[in-house]
Amino acid sequence: MSDKAINSGDSDELQALFDSIVAANSGPAETPAPTPAPASGAASAPSAEPAAAVTAAAMNMDEPARSMFASIGQLTRKVHDALREMGYDKSLEKAAAAIPDARDRLSYVATLTEQAANRTLNAVDVAQPLQDKIESDSEALAAEWDKLFANQLSVEEFKQLAARTREHLKTSANNARATNSQLLEIMMAQDFQDLTGQVIKKIVEMAKEMEGSLFEFLVQFSPAGSPAHKPAADLDDSLLNGPVYNAEGRTDVVTNQEQVDDLLASLGF
Amino acid sequence: MTDKNIRFLVVDDFSTMRRIVRNLLKELGFSNVEEAEDGQVALHKLKSTTFDFIVSDWNMPNMTGIELLKAVRGDPTLKHLPFLMITAEAKKENIVEAAQAGASGYIVKPFTAATLDEKLGKIFQTLNK
């Protein structure tokens, strides 16, 4: 019985202390009074009464013993924890050290993605006017060529048109080349994906590790029955959640613009 | 036909997103675009300059988009301005909240140029009624 009571501790002193307190409290009455087996007590009514009296006495004795039990249990837990604290300290230290690292990695991701976006947008800014020029010049020349085919141009005008067309073809080639180099630049700007992907993968691993050691720590140190491993879903109640990274199984979010429109329409907006 | 010279205020704390929205608006023929990095700056600009259209993110420091929307709707000189929300906030609660606060439209990120075009068109249609 006492073995069972202290099964979480390894201390002989505590075991002895516990035994002495149990003995002092229960006195002559045997604490581990076995509850009457229903099969044996069923036969005779007179024997059932003393058995009940013994059980009641045991309950009375149990009350102070129980609070002692609780305090000793806590003491034992403290010793137990102290012995193992070193190990947990290490895992917590590791977890704490991982946080600045993760922070750095994340700002690296932020920097890289911002750079890539700017690089891409810059390339578009350069390439668009080149394309616009090709478009507008081609349209103007095409209109003149239409006139020529409608016999509306003089020989002199035709000569000018031919010269301008020749010039246009050269410019267009140059613009196309320049545009191509911007497209290449846009392509190259996507290299952030590879880099950030790797970094994010590492952060995910780190988070997993951190979660593991913190969870273990919480299980050991939190009072029994406390919700040590409750997902942070409760924190999600605000209206500032950012992008939904996993909409699976959720009914409180929309996943595309149509759903937004449908919801608004259903509300009369 | 919509006046292409109307003056837009694009509010987002991410400069890249402001650039993208600005470029998309330009693509749609609207090149009169100003930017603000949060609701506070936006409100200041709205009070000192005249704008015809607000496009705003939700989640921003200092003053969020929904706070800006409420401030705009509560200001007699600004309350008539069309207010288009473009945000990554995709909870139904958010959409309802924005609609009730008087948003003229709601676009969830990531979005396409076609979506922006459609929403703008819808808002202008309502305005011209």
Number of helices of chain A: 7
Overall radius of gyration of chain B: 13 Å
Strand content of chain B: 15-25%
Query: Beta-strand percentage of chain A?
Result: under 5%
Task: Summarize the entry for a quick read.
The complex is a heterodimer of chains A (269) and B (129). Chain A has 269 residues and is mainly alpha-helical.
Written account of the structure:
The complex is a heterodimer of chains A (269) and B (129). Chain A is mainly α and 269 residues long. Chain A has seven helices and no strands. In chain A, helix 4 (45-149) runs antiparallel to helix 6. The model of chain A is unreliable at 1-9, 28-58 and 228-235 (pLDDT under 50). Chain B has helices spanning 15-27, 39-48, 65-73, 92-101, 113-128, and strands spanning 8-11, 33-36, 53-56, 83-87, 105-108. Chain B has a five-stranded parallel sheet, sandwiched between helices. In chain B, helix 3 (65-73) links the parallel strand 3 (53-56) and strand 4 (83-87). By secondary structure, chain B is an alpha/beta fold. The mean pLDDT of chain B is 92. In chain B, 45% of the residues lie in helices and 16% in strands. Chain B contains five helices and five strands, in the order E-H-E-H-E-H-E-H-E-H. At the A-B interface, helix 4 and helix 7 of A face helix 1, helix 4 and strand 5 of B.
List the helices and strands and how they pair.
The complex is a heterodimer of chains A (269) and B (129).
Chain A: H1 2-5, H2 12-26, H3 38-41, H4 45-149, H5 155-189, H6 192-221, H7 257-266
Helix pairs in contact in A: 2-4, 4-5, 4-6
Chain B: E1 8-11, H1 15-27, E2 33-36, H2 39-48, E3 53-56, H3 65-73, E4 83-87, H4 92-101, E5 105-108, H5 113-128
Parallel strand pairs in B: 1-2, 1-3, 3-4, 4-5
Helix pairs in contact in B: 2-3
